[in-house]
Design brief:
The protein has one domain: Beta Barrel (Porin). The protein starts with a helix and ends with a strand. The protein is mostly beta strands. The chain has an 8-stranded antiparallel β-barrel with strand order 1-3-4-5-6-8-9-12. Strands 7-10-11 form a 3-stranded antiparallel beta sheet, with no helix packed on it. A hairpin with a 4-residue loop joins β3 and β4.
């Protein structure tokens, strides 16, 4: 997928915020702001749905699929966390002309992640995170047509919020964009026009300890 103007601007903004990690913080700012505590682990499990951002390939249609996300983060200070995210999603794929069900694509994404939590509002903690990693793609065929998608570079940008029910548990919602742009090989040769980039809408919970 070609970079979107809004996505690019948010990406630049996030990079600017990350560059602040190395800057010294005034004590008064640190006391007033910050959405977490140093040395905290956060484990999360979320589920949701995931539409692709565009047509997967020419003459194909792609279903909105399920998505499952696991994450583990460690807070280095009051507002910067690092960790790992693992995400699975599935999309049904069919030809438009002639109408034919081709099968489904599965994607497992392994994503080292950094997250910013600059503020909190009582029980609500907004955040933004960014991940880089790999998309491991596979295809389950329903016809004799063989499709083998490539593994691809993954870049993921997410926005969300936690609602703290207690010191140890929070409800979570998150929206994210993930890049998954590659090619396929198989029946008919190589197809360089294969883009499974997607949006994710996630709902779940997190444990703090």
């Amino acid at each position: 997928m070609r970079p979107l103007t809004l996505t690019t601007r948010l990406f630049v903004l996030l990079l600017a915020l990350i560059s602040m990690v190395g800057m010294p913080l005034q004590a008064s700012w640190a006391e007033e702001f910050g959405g977490t505590e140093p040395g905290k682990w956060i484990l999360g499990t979320r589920v949701g749905f995931s539409p692709v951002t565009q047509q997967l390939s020419d003459n194909t249609s792609t279903s909105i699929g399920p998505i499952v996300n696991f994450q583990g983060l460690y807070s280095l200070n009051r507002w910067f966390l690092v960790g790992l995210m693992v995400e699975w999603e599935r999309h049904g794929v069919s030809l438009e002309r002639p109408d034919m069900d081709l099968g489904h694509q599965d994607t497992v994404s392994v994503l080292p992640t950094m997250e910013l939590r600059p503020v909190k509002f009582d029980r609500i903690t907004p955040y933004v995170n960014m991940s880089f990693g790999v998309n491991i793609n596979s295809f389950g065929e329903n016809t004799a047509i063989r499709i083998s998608p490539s593994n691809t570079f993954a870049w993921r940008l997410g926005w969300g919020a936690d609602y703290r029910l207690s010191e140890q548990f929070a409800l979570n919602v998150e929206w994210a964009y993930k890049r998954n742009d590659g090619h396929t090989t198989g029946t008919g040769g190589r197809n360089d026009d294969w883009n499974a980039s997607s949006f994710a809408f996630l709902f779940g919970g997190k444990i703090y300890f």
